[in-house]
Amino acid sequence: MDNNLRSVCDYLDQWGADTGAGLRRVLDDKKFYYKLLLEFSQDDALRKLENAIDNSEWKTAFAIAHDLKGAALSLGLLPLSRTISDVVEDLRTDVRPTLTDDLGKFQTEWQSYQKIIQSWTAMPTEEGDGNDMITPQKLVIPDFCHDLPVIYVIYRIVLKPDTSVPEDLCFLEMSDAYCRLIGRERKMLVGRTRSEIFGSLDASWIEYASRASVYRRKSSSHYFDRLTDRWYNLTVAPIGIPGCSVFSFQPVEDTQSDRQALLRNQNTDKLIIQICRTLDMDRDYSRAMNRVLEELSQVIHPDRIYIVEKKGPLIRNTFEWCAPGVEPLLKKLGSKVNPEVSRGWGIENGSPHLSMVEDIEELRDRFPVNYQILKKEGIRNMVSVPFYSGGEMIGLMGIHNFTPSETVDVQKVLQNVAFFISVKVSNHLLHERLEDLKKHDEATGAKNREAMLLCIQNIQNGDQAVGVVYCNLNSMKEINDREGFTGGDEVLKKTVEILSDTFGRQNVYRIGGDEFLVLVSGKSEEAIHDMVSSFRELQTDPGTPSMAVGSYWVSHGSEVKRGIRQADRAMQEEKKLYHMRHRE
Predict the structure, then answer these.
(1) Exposed site from 194, 199, 261, 518, fewest CB < 10 Å?
(2) Which residues of 472-483 are buried (b: 16+ CB within 10 A; e: fewer)?
(3) What letter would DSSP give residue 294?
(4) DSSP at 317
(5) Cα(297)–Cα(303) distance, rounded to whole angstroms?
(6) Helix or strand (DSSP H, E) at 389
(7) With b meaning 16 or more CB within 10 Å and e meaning fewer, what string describes 365-384?
(8) Per-residue pLDDT for 567 more than 90?
(9) DSSP H helical ranges for 157-234
(10) At what angle do helices 58-74 and 78-92 cross, to 10 degrees?
(11) Which pTM value belongs to this model?
(12) 15-29 mean pLDDT
């Protein structure tokens, strides 16, 4: 990963990025930074921005452009942040004479960014080394021995224009045996797509190719060729060429039992692909998870099936499907996981693989607490399927009272689906972390102005009382002149720490160079007064940065903006007194 990241960063910096700043934003977490670069390169925000502008949805376009600007700046992608900043300013006004030109400049830089990421994505070896770097100079098709009887073909994924969505497969190379199988010459195939040759393309083949070229995973399935009227074992595997994979075909005997087994396996593969497509195509995280549960329930017919995310001792983002008449279980358990129950689920110190309990009585002696809970719910059998990311368990899928299926291999479905669900969950967590970074000030760690505006909007929609504290550092210019900007940054950090100790870090916002705002909801006027008094007492400590402070309390969230104005006025008055005293 380090070699790969260095290569990506070198080319991004040559393009004009500041990857050093991007790495510092994520505390030099190289693996996380690399994932963010990949994730951002696949974001469809540009398409949404273009659609919003085309439909004159200016508020939506402004919000999307503003988010893009924040993400690009957080990652150190200066060519993107610079050009999208011009778009943001265009959208901020009612007159937009330069919008088309500025959007075109951003589109050009976005395409450059995607090309860098796509050209320098690491392709791990079959053993999963992950450090070999595939450069453009290495993109050479090997000289295969065409006379071997092996039936194989190498495909390259073809993406939809200006997207990262695969839509077809292009022939790169194939064996003579494959040419004979489909009755075509090599020269008629190389460089053309399957849709051009056959008129249509089974979507499952794109799924197999994506799984191999993107996730570096083999797939095994069964394929019935209508030209030869025969079944084949189909294996799709990754190769050392970006975006490419090899499909190989092995003929199988055509007995009745083989037909039944092949049909079962084919149904299994179709279900896996259907669920993978749901996870890939539906960008609404909650809706995608609930749809997966619905699709699984139609095959294994359980009483209950659920997905949970795990964060420390807590579970969150719980998704649960229940058969008619079956009461949801997760609502009863709450968000805190009972250690005994979690061990029974396999969450703590459990097997890293699928765990199936065919008879709940097996848990009576090993996990008595879990047994009593499940027995009370009428659970007869259960399956636990953990999800992992980077070796760490991030969630689990559970199934209660399932019915064995003769049409699909349930165990194979669950094991394969678990991998793709874990990818979905992992990407969701990465997105959450990136969103969190966008709402925090880089220098101090306090929440930034964007987070403040969102907080104010939420407060206005509520009915709680709000305490407002407005702070401005005194003599910040003198501090910077005397100690330099590094010394100034230390003063800002200390200010945030002091504010956080008194009012709670989650309530502290840096809204300007040396200005801070505190918003505390749900406290009485007396409680806010006591907190401000405690904070003022700290001002007598010589080691505490000097600041002007104004505060105000409002009884209802709808008045929060008035409270901010009043706190600002009080702070300004105190600021004047400070300057008058220091002039004397």
Answers:
(1) 199
(2) bbbbbeebbeee
(3) H
(4) E
(5) 9
(6) strand 382-389
(7) eebeebbebbeebebebbbb
(8) yes
(9) 176-182, 186-189, 194-198, 203-213
(10) 160
(11) 0.45
(12) 83
